[in-house]
Amino acid sequence: MSKRATPGVPSVGNDPRDSITESREPEEKTWFRDLDEAVIEADRCVQCGSCMAACPSDSIGIEPETGRPTLVRMCTGCSRCWDFCPRSGLRYERLNELEGESPDAAYAASADDDHEGQDGGAVTALLAGLLAAGEIDGAVVVSDGDDPLAGEATLATSPEELFESAGSTYSQTMQLGQVDDLVAESDLVDPDIALVGTPCVIQGAAALDRLQYDDELASVSLTVSLVCTRSFAADRLRSLLVGNGVDMDDVDSLEVVGGALTARDADGHRLLTKDVEAFDAAALRGCAECADAVGKAADISAGNVGSPDGKTTLLARTDDGTAAIEAAMEALDIDELDSTDALDAFADWNRRQAEATIPRERDSEASLTVTYTEHREAYDGTGREPEPLNPARVHQYEEWC
Ligand SMILES: Cc1cc2nc3c(=O)[nH]c(=O)nc-3n(C[C@H](O)[C@H](O)[C@H](O)COP(=O)(O)OP(=O)(O)OC[C@H]3O[C@@H](n4cnc5c(N)ncnc54)[C@H](O)[C@@H]3O)c2cc1C
Ligand code: SF4
Ligand code: SF4
Question: Could you tell me which InterPro entries the record lists for this protein (predicted)?
Fold first, then answer.
């Protein structure tokens, strides 16, 4: 994802929406309340923050109690929150068709020193290498602060901040909606920023990059997607860990590898290892509809599947991704992978699981936008259909929509 040279000018063609999607019917004006009913109240939101990032009037914020999107001022019914939501209006498989499905190169990589990370620490080392080489000015990552279960989107602009944010946080932060504010609140001027996110976050970023006419995410020049098949609601995960006898005061980190979830203390001692399916009730329900485990719209994908222990699989998917890995080579201990069969099989398995759950037909050649009407036709009567608005919020809509 190359940085847009001129804020306000879309990066693909003169009229990207017309070039890659059919026009929407004008009567398909979609409001945030439609998104609320179809995604948030229906418990399908994956807290990616794409709706918040896409809203041109900054009308969407984060509800503190739930960490989900909520209306904070007048909704104009411009439809963008709907259009960019991967659980409703964004036909994200179309992005993958535009990018091509196969990676340009595949590596097993780790940091070239003993810095910590989730697997090989390659993502953190890559970012630190790019920072040292002057290729980026910072990276929006997710730190776990004081709570290993609840992440916090953060802009790291030094190697120290990157190393502090190493490791995986298995919850979502509405990250995409915070990128521009984090950059605006920093001292950086017209920076080049890397964005590390789960595939749903990167789908929103890629769609905004292609379709926006204004300057949302204009500073993002590189996207790194973490391989992901599910994320968790921190409060529900906490309850299940406690129910399994874990003292949460002792937990420093979690890892999900090979189908097992492990909790460790600050010395790395194992507190619990259990089949990750035992924590299904804490998984975000919308993740079951996600068929993009490797983040195909990203410049680089990173995961543990397909590499030996202590290594990270890095897939370069675009010219920008290839150039970034080359620019950071000195920070990495890196070998080309002969085969991506293991990761391909993993992604395929995940896609089949998702396809069995998603009520709408997946079609990488159809319009990038799934209209509200099309969504209703596919979802009504399925158990994933829109739910009535939360009565506590109806007054907001009476005032703001
Ligand atoms: C929810 C989730 C599920 C995952 N599931 C799988 C899986 O099933 N299979 C698999 O192969 N890999 C999975 N991963 C990826 C894996 O855990 C590692 O992140 C990846 O292998 C890179 O390892 P590393 O040591 O190179 O990264 P590190 O050097 O530790 O760097 C990781 C970077 O990601 C950032 N980060 C951490 N959590 C998040 C988050 N939630 N959102 C955005 N950025 C974040 C960190 O701040 C850091 O910058 C998952 C990751 C997450 C967050
Ligand atoms: S899934 Fe993402 S875009 Fe959709 S409502 Fe939730 S946060 Fe917004
Ligand atoms: S499984 Fe998909 S929807 Fe859920 S957090 Fe991961 S990338 Fe997002």
Answer: 4Fe4S_Fe-S-bd, 4Fe4S_Fe_S_CS, Co_F420_Hydgase/DH_bsu_N, FRHB/FDHB/HCAR-like, FrhB_FdhB_C
142 in ligand 1 pocket by Cβ < 6 Å?
Answer: yes
C-alpha 312 chain-centroid distance = 18
Which two tokens mark 90?
């964004």
Residue 364 to residues 21, 38, 94, 98, 188: CA-CA distances in angstroms? 11, 22, 4, 9, 38
Thinking of the domain 24-96+364-400, which architecture would CATH place it in?
2-Layer Sandwich (3.30)
pLDDT in tens, 182-230: 999 999 999 999 999 999 999 999 999 888 667 889 999 999 999 999 9
Cα 72 to ligand 1 centroid, rounded to whole Å: 31
Pocket lining: 30 vs ligand 1, CB cutoff 6 Å: no
- The DSSP 8-state label assigned to residue 244 in this structure reads T
Residue type (1 letter), 212: Q
In this structure, the residues whose C-beta lies within 6 A of any atom of ligand 2 are: 35, 39-40, 45-51, 69, 85, 87, 174
Is the pLDDT confidence value at 99 over 70? Answer: no
- Cβ(350) to ligand 3 under 6 A? no
DSSP labels, 14-49: SSHHHHHSPPPPTT----HHHHIIIIITTT------
Atom of ligand 1 nearest to the CA of 306: 11
On whether the CB atoms of residues 1 and 222 are closer than 8 A, the answer is: yes
Q: Which two tokens stand for residue 10?
A: 């879309």
Q: Where are the alpha helices (DSSP H) in 21-166?
A: 32-35, 50-54, 80-83, 93-99, 122-132, 159-164
**Where are the chain's structural domains?**
24-96+364-400, 102-355
Query: Which residues are CB-neighbours of 77 under 8 A, at least 6 positions away?
Result: 29, 30, 31, 401
Q: Are 360 and 374 in contact (CB under 8 A)?
A: yes
| Chain segment 162-175, per-residue pLDDT in tens | 999 999 999 999 99
Structure tokens at 45: 């939101």
- Residue of 281, 43, 257 lying closest to 168 (CA atoms): 257
Among 107, 115, 118, residue to substitute to test ligand 1 (most atoms within 8 Å of Cβ): 118
Tell me which residue has its CA closest to atom 5 in ligand 2: 45
